[in-house]
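fyi for ur records
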Amino acid sequence: MGVISPDTVRIVKSTAPVLKEHSVSIVERFYSILFERHPEAAAYFNIVPSSPAGGNSDCNSSGGSRGQSREQIQRLSMAVLFYAQKIDALDTLGPVLDRIASKHVSRATPAAFYPIIGSCLIAAIGDVLGAAATPEIVAAWTEAYGFLADALKATEAKVAAGLAEKTGGWTTYAPFVVAAVAKEAVPAGQAASLTLRPTAEAPVVSPTWKAGQYVGLCLPLTAVGGGQTETGASVRRTCFITSAPAAGADIRVTLVTGPGVPVDPVVESLMRLPVGAAVEVSPPLGSFTYDHPVLGSRRPSSPAVFVTSEAGVPEVATLVREALAAGRPVTLVRHVTSDVVAAAPAAEQLLGAELVAAAAAADGGHLSQVVVRAPADVAAAVGARAVADAEFFVASTPPTLAGEVRDALVGGSGVPLDRVLHAGYVPA
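which gave:
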């Protein structure tokens, strides 16, 4: 990996204000250029089956223009802005590189896409900024992207090598079947947990799973109501593990639709998969884990507060279990937009009864579940003691939640920044 030049650092950093204003437009234009020039790339992005190609996204993502997820547009625009803001502090980017690289490894994204992505991103910057995208700025961003691509490829190689060592060779999609389907109680919409079991052909020795991790799912378009196409014959989704894998390497993931959860026809189809249906599953990955040295818990004896949207509950469910098992007082704060969801008792919320049972079984663990209608309400909902002493873990769905909660807690309630933990790249 090379060294980025001081001039490039200065120039890219100087573009942060204009990117803050135009980053969403740049990312929308980027996707348009990418899928026009390289339709084969659509199989690795957020394209729903009704689009010209298959695609992927996090579970419970929504469809946007040309089929890509609105949340994915937000995530990528935030990542571009974050990089511009932090380019003069590259030593702080390690957790971000880990997160992005893990997603790429989970989805088996080819390294050959990096130059394609780079050329389309630079073209999008030029199209959106127009004359403001001077040759100096274009050259600086070209160098900065090349540096980032090299860093990500190196990190992906480390992630893949670690998987090979820990999982006995399970480094990419392996054949599983749906072993069980359980409908989950929710006050509105639908939710289902799928238990996925490796077949005899799967090179799975152990899932080597940690609380907070996810797996990638891949299955043919025809399995979720789409047609085979020249540019993409499969769909991919990233789904969080919601209970510890059982003996034999079974893995459970939970899917949800309904109020406050962006529509995704692929997720809805996954929820309808019958027992015995075939699905390819990638090994558990993800760095927002309870024991991560940077993103994980640093105050194991203090109260733990988990803040999530309804769609983000599967992301934090196992983290909540881990904190309860450690004997910590835990508060699960659900940020909801639906009156029906807000009025429902905790036991009827997604995975609510299950988490109550986990708290009852924990030695010293205690669980409170509360609902807020805005991130600014979190501090009042959890009380003065939590604001004074707790760690706050914030889900990454929707992409803007972590920044809104951070700003409310740090700026509005005086919570130290290092007590607000999240997996995202949250620009200033």
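The chain has 13 helices and twelve strands. thats all i got for now
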